[in-house]
Amino acid sequence: MITENHYFEGNVKSLGYETSDGSSTIGVINPGEYQFNTAKHEIMKIIEGELTVLLPDETAWQSFKAGTAFEIPADATFKVKASAQVAYLCQYR
């Protein structure tokens, strides 16, 4: 089954699906700054564009470009900033 996810008044949208490795979403983030909370461990891969991220327990923002990834532990909060649309793949483990 494919699920549709909409966050932040439609500025972040994704499609969720299941694989043999677990659940994943693929989506697009519009320009802006957003805060997310995790329930599971997440691996976020940037497909297109560039995303600036404030990882949990960090004070410095880091930039991730297409082809790179970062991980967020379960039960954590992180922030992202996009200056242009960003496409991503998020895997939940």
Written account of the structure:
This protein is mainly beta. It is 0% helix and 65% strand. It contains no helices and ten strands. It has strands at 3-7, 12-19, 22-29, 32-37, 42-48, 50-54, 62-65, 69-72, 77-82, 86-92. The strands form two sheets. A six-stranded antiparallel β-sheet has the order 1-2-3-10-5-8, with no helix packed on it. The protein has a four-stranded antiparallel β-sheet with strand order 4-9-6-7, with no helix packed on it.
* Helix-strand sequence: EEEEEEEEEE
Class computed from helices, strands and strand pairing: mainly beta
Radius of gyration: 12 Å
Mean pLDDT: 96
Largest sheet strand order: 1-2-3-10-5-8
Individual helix count: 0
- Total count of strands: 10
* Proportion of strand residues: over 45%
Biggest β-sheet description: 6 strands, antiparallel
Question: Which SSEs are present, and which pair or pack?
Answer:
Elements: E1 3-7, E2 12-19, E3 22-29, E4 32-37, E5 42-48, E6 50-54, E7 62-65, E8 69-72, E9 77-82, E10 86-92
Antiparallel strand pairs: 1-2, 2-3, 3-10, 4-9, 5-8, 5-10, 6-7, 6-9
